[in-house]
Amino acid sequence: MTKLVILSQSERSKFDEPPKFNDNDRTMYFSLKNEELDLVKELRAPTTKVGFALQLGYFKSNGKFYTSEQFREQDIQFVTKMLDLDSKNIDLSTYKKKIYNDHHTKILNQLAWQPFNKMQQEKIDEYVQWLVQRQLALKPIFLSIIDFCWQNKIELPSYNIMTIIITNAYNKFEDDLSNTLAKHLTKEQLDKLNKFAGIDGDENKKRMYRPQITLIKQINQSLRPLEVQANVDAFNLFKEYFHIFKNVIDILKLTDQATEYFATLVQKSTTYQLSSFSDRNKLYLYLLCYIKHQFYYRHDVMIDIFLKSTQAAVNSAKKQLNRLEKENRAERNKAIKKLSLANKGSRELIEKITATLKSPTLSESGKLAKIEELVDLYNDQGDLLEKEHLLKLEQSLDKVSSNQAYFDALESMSIKLQRKVAELTKHMIFNPTTSLKELISAIHNFGVSSGDLNQNPPVDFLTQDEKDCLYKEDKLRTSFYKILLFSHMAEAIKAGHLNLLYSYRYKDIQEYLIDDKLWAEKPQELLEKAGLNDFYDFNTIISKYKTQLDSKYKLVNDRFLAGENIHLKIDKDGKIILHTPKTDSSEKEYISSLLSQAGFIPILQVLSDINYITQYTSSFKHFSVKHKKMEPKPETIYAGIIGSGCNIGVNRIAKTSVGISEDTLKNAVNWCFSLKNIQRANNKIISVINKLFISNAHRHSQDELHTSSDGRKVNVSVDSLHANYSYKYFGKGKGVSIYTFIDERQLLFYSTVISASEREAAYVIDGLVQNDVIRSTIHSTDTHGFTETVFAVSPFINTAFAPRIKDIADQHIYSFAARQTYEKKGYKILPSRTINLKLIEKNWNAILRFMATIKLKHTSASQLFKRLSSYAKEHPLYQALKEFGRIIKSIFILTYFDDVQLRQRIEKQLNKVELSNKFSKAVFFANSGEFKCGTKEEQEIVTACKVLIQNAIVLWNYLFLSQLLANNSDAEERKHMLELIKQGSIICWQHINLHGEYDFTKHAANEACFNMEKIYALRII
User: Fold this and answer.
1) Rounded to an integer, what distance in angstroms lies between the CA atom of residue 932 and that of residue 852?
2) SS3 of 741, please?
3) What CA–CA distance (Å, rounded) separates 151 from 162?
4) Rounded CA gap, 618 and 1003, in Å?
5) What residues have CB less than 8 Å from 574, skipping those under 6 apart?
6) Does residue 747 lie in a domain region?
7) Are 296 and 507 in contact (CB under 8 A)?
8) Are 824 and 924 found together in one domain?
9) Is residue 157 located within the same domain as residue 197?
């Protein structure tokens, strides 16, 4: 068996060796509690005592035991001195296996840990199998095993054993799947797969021909009818293949993560590489995953096209109606006046006729003659053409009042829309169980008739106004009916009332949550895994927040009434006015001036210097976990990072730079530049920043970490289904929003690319939960970044949500008590209404399930929020979350009123994210700062490379400043320098040369550019 390579040689050594302690670490881990000291006293020989104390300290730190040959000399000396022993009496060569085993057992018993044995290995094997089914990368699985052992108090095995466990799990997983395929794939299915991939079924021939797979790897991003049709054709091909192999795909029971992993291997492979697979069953496994993944993914793309096209048609109809109304406004007003005069004449005629009929002096024949005279006189007042004109005016006004004008405008858009979405509608597969029956019936009718509708199609999904206008002279307005069907479908999809059967993004909300049966069986276990045990009891939680909110009301009002809050005022109309003094630093240029001492540093040198320290390029592994051949040189990775992150383009940087092969670079980017790899590289840089004294000096409190997030709009200059039009941001073009998270030390720890039309609040929780390196204790956004549901989630993830509130008067404050209760107490700051506790309590179990789904990373928070919020007021879970969020928001707003320093901290933190957006534009400089790629996946990879460059510059700046401080021997001057640095921003890039020619022939840094030992040791008190 060939073992997988998980860690580098240096990482392996570090894992299998005892930890390297500093003085503080030694004091922490080697200090003995009373019961531990008693165990040491029981031992006779000094060597045995030292060995036991060393093993105990190492185990507390690492969960592992070591041989005496591995013990570190400084640790031996520390423990010997701590135990007040004579070092001459210490001979660790006598610390043999029997003593080792005895200490091993005593320490495990003392700490209540389990030894790593066959039974514990079986537990780990089962856990790793579960991880492998989700196709996590090797290193995350390795780290997860460590976490699993610590959580379950199991002694950690060696690197070699862990590698064998992981290798066996991967082999077993793929072998089991391959064996399943060998049993269930029929000859006809095998022939289909071979034809699809472009290989002959005969192993000996391996005859190549133009396969279908090469024609459909890319998804067209255009909304032009021909390109849409090409996407429909490709979708139908995958749909056909999916149903051919559905029975086998169902038997495999692959997770979405595993399916996507194997599918991506096919996506990245050439036809030649596919044909070279030695194990055909594994190739068939990958191809089936590719078929399933593409079918699901393209199904979602069909919906994207449908929604965008339908919305564009509806918008065009509204614009047309507005334009016609503007053009006809004067004529319409004139018509209204004419009709008013005509109506006035009609009323006068009726009054005269009524008076005539009631006349006591006229006979019946006289009344009739008088009425005829009045009618003739009225008719003589206007000619026939004028009356016809008035009749048309009346009909025109009736048309406006009955929506007929809008319906006509909508109908005029129908043919154009049909060219784009009629075929889509026929082929999409909706879930009848979770969708509106009336719409399902209409869609089915549309599909079976191929769009050729009869005179009585299903109409139950229409409004009464729409039904009233559906027929003209007893004939169905076919085009009108079709656009009504499309628009109702679009609304239902967005509202969660029309869901796909096979999809990643458009399923019913229940399908994204933890399985309801599993939740019903193991709620406590799932809550424990998610860290939500403290939220189990509803009454306890509500009692806690009731106390907090009541106390906060009292405190804020008492301080206000006592005149202690000078920045809060209430005007005569009861409107709250809040003032926040500015905290702009006067030392903005100080850091920049210090960094300028470094000269003008090429970005290539920055990337090389930082790689020497962090080894982030080791994260760029081949996408296949079993691939060992490709290990790109650091220079190749630098080229890929700069080409993508600076928006130059991989092809262009290869052609315009020195020392880079275009084919080598393309191959490396294709196989090694996955989003997860780039994020891991970023995390390595962040982990070093985390360790620096100077970076942590920027924290307001060492017990808290303040973070923030904000979006930056970026144009997309190519066809993109992910981009949206916005005249405000993109003029006549379209674009997306890069949503970025930053902490108070100014390192960027999460980023994503979202549609410019989406609200950013849905992604706030993603950044706080999905990242693996930063644990935010307080998070701020601007007004557009918060909703009551975000407030609701924040306590569950142990993060205080603290947005900037610009329009404070528009924010409602809620309470558990009625308004009158507060008025009686003389409170000025009053709640707008009370909390609906019954609604929250009724849905508390659903809220816990929702939160466990997020915290266990079963589904992203943004996906859940997008599906849940689409139901609007109709979904009880959404309503309950909002109601609970109002409690948390009210506590925050009251704190916001009262704590001027908190408001200033929020302003300061949001200024940092705004500065990082300027930094982002400076790095992303080429091609006018516009995305040249259309898919979300491509845009996120480019953005991740950009963030990596930004973090590399931030770390380089920190290291340079740290070295300046470390080299300064004047304690007072160092202290003064640090204070000035803390007041400024580390986000400086004027000293970095991002432009120019890139020469990759120069070797990467092979010697330290910074004295890391000195920098890590830096402390200024």
Assistant:
1) 38
2) strand
3) 17
4) 16
5) none
6) yes
7) no
8) yes
9) no
Can you give the pLDDT at residue 869? 78
Give the model's pLDDT for residue 385: 46
| Residue 682, domain member (yes or no) | yes
Contact 676, 264 (CB under 8 A): no
Tokens 């060492």 locate to 702
* Nearest-angstrom CA–CA distance, 954 and 41: 51
CA distance 6 to 158: 13
Q: Count up the domains in the chain and report the number.
A: 4
Kindly state the tokens that stand for 400. 């406006």
**Is the distance from CB of 58 to CB of 13 less than 8 angstroms?**
no
Tokens matching residue 32: 């003995």
Residues 803 and 932 in one domain: yes
Domain of 653? 590-689+940-1017
Is the domain of 946 the same as that of 927? no
- Identify whether residues 789 and 910 lie together within a single domain: yes
| Domain boundary, last residue among 885, 911, 937 | 937
Q: How far is CA 246 from the centre of its chain?
A: 30
**What SS3 state is found at 825?**
coil
Q: Is 34 exposed, middle or buried (0-12, 13-18, 19+ CB in 10 A)?
A: exposed
Helix 46-62 to helix 73-82 angle (10° resolution) is 120
Residues of the chain with pLDDT under 70: 1, 200-210, 215, 327-346, 348-349, 352-353, 356-357, 366-367, 370-371, 373-402, 584-588, 627-629, 871-873, 1003-1007
What distance, in Å, lies between the first and last C-alpha atoms of the chain? Answer: 55
pLDDT at 807: 80
CA-nearest of 74, 59, 142 to 106 is 59
State the angle between helix axes of 364-380 and 280-357 in degrees (0 to 180), rounded to the nearest 10. 130
Residue 727, pLDDT score? 82
Question: How far is residue 588's CA from residue 980's CA, in Å, rounded to a whole number?
Answer: 9
Last residue of a domain, one of 145, 179, 213: 179
pLDDT for res 208: 45
List of long-range contacts for 180-189, beta carbons under 8 Å, 24+ apart: 180/248, 180/251, 180/252, 181/248, 181/252, 181/281, 181/284, 181/285, 181/288, 182/281, 184/247, 184/248, 184/251, 185/248, 185/284, 189/244, 189/245, 189/248
For residue 68, what are its two tokens?
């005496």
Number of residues that make up the chain: 1021
Residue 495: partners with Cβ closer than 8 Å, 6 or more residues away: 870, 871, 872
Could you tell me the two tokens for 281?
């069953």
Q: What is the structure's pLDDT at 205?
A: 47
947 in the same domain as 878: no
Contacts of 674 (CB under 8 A, 6+ apart): 623, 941
Predicted local distance difference test score (pLDDT) of residue 210: 59
Site of tokens 């890929």 = 640
Residues 871 and 751 placed together within one structural domain of the fold: yes
Query: What residues contact residue 878 under an 8 Å CB cut-off, 6+ apart?
Result: 789, 868, 869, 871, 872
Q: State how far Cα 930 lies from the chain centre.
A: 22
User: Exposed e or buried b for every residue in 24-33, given b needs 16+ CB within 10 A?
Assistant: eebeebbebe
The DSSP bridge pattern shows strands 778-780 and 601-602 to be: unpaired
pLDDT at 344: 65
The b/e string for 783-797 (b: 16+ C-beta within 10 A; e otherwise) is eebbbbbbbbbbbbb
Nearest Cα residue to 774 out of 645, 677, 675, 685: 685
Same domain? For 85 and 165 the reply is yes
Q: How far is CA 135 from CA 141, 259, 263, 741, in A?
A: 9, 9, 12, 27
Q: For residues 37 and 537, give the distance between their C-alpha atoms in angstroms, rounded to a whole number.
A: 41
What are residue 708's phi and psi, to 5 degrees? Answer: -155, 165
Q: Which residues contact 968 (CB under 8 A, 6 or more apart)?
A: 974, 977
- How far apart CA 69 and CA 90 sit, in angstroms, is 13
**pTM of the shown model:** 0.88
Q: Which of 112, 93, 23, 105 is nearest to 51 (CA)?
A: 93
